[in-house]
Design brief:
Elements lengths: L20 H8 L6 H12 L6 H8 L4 H19 L2 E11 L25 H14 L3 E6 L7 H13 L1 E2 L2 E2 L2 E5 L5 H9 L5 E2 L7 H7 L8 H5 L1 H7 L5 E4 L7 H19 L5 E3 L19 H14 L4 E4 L5 H9 L4 E3 L31 H10 L3 E3 L3 H4 L15 H20 L3 H17 L2 H15 L8
Parallel strand pairs: 1-2, 1-10, 1-11, 2-5, 5-6, 6-7, 7-8, 8-9, 9-10
Antiparallel strand pairs: 3-4
Helix pairs in contact: 1-11, 2-3, 2-4, 3-11, 3-12, 4-12, 6-7, 11-12, 14-17, 16-17, 16-18
The structure holds S-adenosylmethionine and iron/sulfur cluster.
Length: about 475
Amino acid sequence: MHFSPESYRIPDKPMKPFIDPEEIWELLNRPSSDNGEVDRVIARSLGKQRLTLQEVAILINATTPEQVQQIKEAARELKRKVYGNRVVLFAPLYVGNKCLNDCTYCGFRSSNRAQLRRTLSGEELVKEIETLEENGQKRLVLVYGEHTEYHPGYIAETVRTAYSVKKGNGEIRRVNINAAPLTIEGFRIVKEAGIGTYQIFQETYHPKAYRQYHLRGKKADYDNRLTALDRAQEAGLDDVGIGALFGLYDWRFEVMALVRHTNHLEACYNVGPHTISFPRIKDASMLQMGEHYFVSDSDFSRLVAILRLAVPYTGMILTAREPAKLRDELLQFGVSQIDGGTRIELGGYADKEKRHDLNKGQFLIHDDRSLNEIIEELLAQDMLPSFCTACYRLGRTGEHFMEFSVPGFIKRFCTPNAMLTLAEYLVDYTPAETALKGWEVVERNMQQLNEMVGDEVRDRIERIKQGERDLYF
Ligand code: SAM
Ligand code: SF4
């Protein structure tokens, strides 16, 4: 796929900063958008084109209730068109909370003496993974503070452990990472361990605001963080995730900057980020934040819809930071991946008692449904829960592969794989009642497949019922 170049005052060069706050503000400070402009931008997005920064500004400046509604409806339509009813599920696993940085919003900040610091022992890590497997998880994101203990070799070792642990029919098939930025060599080391996506959130893309929140440690270097995913690409790691922490600065600026980051990666490496995350600040031990940039639920859902339209083929992740009701709503018009059964205290999966203690986690989560509860609710809404990991394991990543640019790909691969991974889950992990609902959803999705693919899927589901596992297209 080739992206048409866009020109900015700071031209895109590999490994060089690319955010120009004034330029973003000039675009945002234009007058309110008229209906004709909004219609034109939405039409381009529904044609699955990634929007330019100018076009994103038009959506942000469309603020009448009718325009906001129109944007949300368009996002809903695009979501359905691109992703169908699939929702990808994963679980975060906190490996260690030691940290040398002092980010004023984070419970792990180095100046927070109340936080209990530790790194899971090898044995504890295995126990956590076994528990996750017993719950039916197949995809993890390993999370670390920024500390000399969590060097690339250590990260690689924990990734290898995650892949090696097997419990019953359980196994982890994709390990993503959320950790501090690395050097090119460091990225090479973790790539070799077989990671899926490397996620790093810029937190705020506004350089001045960034300085206020990052008081000490390596993370205080804005440019080093901004160019981290360039180094990942240079290391051949082409599956990367970006994000902004909403509540640190004006949400409209952050949305623009996320798109600017996307087109920077496209311009330099011909591949955009695999996923975008948009965590919203939650309460944390020693949280030190003003309310000025707090993002309300209604602005939050607006920004999710705008992002969906801006980057039609990029996965969007919404975590258990947000309450169940809001997560359900945002799944409708944008979000494509959620975590389920989440515990963020160190050792929290194996030891189920350790919950909601500000001093034992990075922040508070607001959705503590079990994975099975989430799956039941998704099934009730006729969504198709997926644990699929096929593309990454078949090398279909980055520039070589952008699933949504290939016509018919979803019907041929994504939906069948979602059905097969759900079938495994229904056979191995669900109570009979959930399984019944699950098979109904599988059957309904089967009706949508063409006959040949449908026959292949039926055949594989039979094999799963007979005990085979890990069948995918
Ligand atoms: N230490 C690594 C780093 O800073 O890149 C890993 C990051 S942290 C464990 C994962 C993400 O949680 C951060 O990048 C930040 O966006 C988010 N986060 C931190 N404090 C938060 C809070 N109080 N509420 C919600 N999200 C928060
Ligand atoms: Fe450390 Fe990351 Fe928390 Fe900052 S956000 S204090 S780097 S764990």
